[in-house]
Amino acid sequence: MITLYTFGAAFGLPDPRPVVTKTEVLLKLSGLPYQKKRANVRKAPKGKLPYIDDDGTIVADSTFIRFHLEDKHGIDFDKGFIPEQRGVAWAVEKLFEDHLYWAGVDNRWMVDTNFDKGPRRFFDPIPSPVRPLVIAMVRRQVKRNMWGHGMGRHSRAEILRVSARGMDAVADILGAKPFLLGDRPCGADATAFAFIAGALTPFFDDPARDKAMKRANLVAYRDRGMAEWFPQFAKRAVSV
Ligand SMILES: N[C@@H](CCC(=O)N[C@@H](CS)C(=O)NCC(=O)O)C(=O)O
Predict the structure, then answer these.
(1) Which of 93, 100, 126, 187 is most buried (most C-beta within 10 Å)?
(2) Is 0.85 topped by the overall pTM?
(3) In sequence order, what are the residues at sequence separation of 6 or more whose Cβ sits closer than 8 angstroms to the Cβ of residue 223?
């Protein structure tokens, strides 16, 4: 039995971190039995979530978890799709994970009102006398990470501009298809669904969200994925 280590539901979503939701969708697509457990991120093998324990084999990072499912269990998430489609799917996946992800971090962590109702809550279990210190330290670290990536060097207007372009690109690739490559999901749909659901959650104020909501196919795609994989969240992801 595979155990997926998660943060747990928040912000009207199955998990606040899209890469965790991505991994759960991959597990659902694989058809393999799995269970979920709340993790202590400080004890995670790479200091990040997700990771899995597959009968004693620990695999960290959503991409390496995918590779593991492919290698050990013989799953081909892109079965039936030609190399060009597989290539587009992989590029879309990494557009979300290595580019648009940072626009989401900026909106959730650097916009005070969003931080206060969102990520600040992660620190509630910390004893109150030291909490403000820990919060300030972690927020500084997130800012440094954003700077190191490069997204953090842009103004908010610039971040919104590049993230809107990215979401438009995905909406254009998706077009009228139910899933990224056609009538059935491929591996990258796990990522696209997770990130689009996160970007569209009404939990946060986000001009990028307002813009993305105008792309009806993205909204329908999010709704389709929620109904298919997380029906218990379908309502909450739409109105929190
Ligand atoms: N490349 C990794 C990214 C994992 C990642 O960045 N996880 C973040 C959440 S999105 C994390 O666990 N950060 C530590 C924390 O939130 O304390 C993957 O795809 O799994």
Answers:
(1) 187
(2) yes
(3) 234, 238
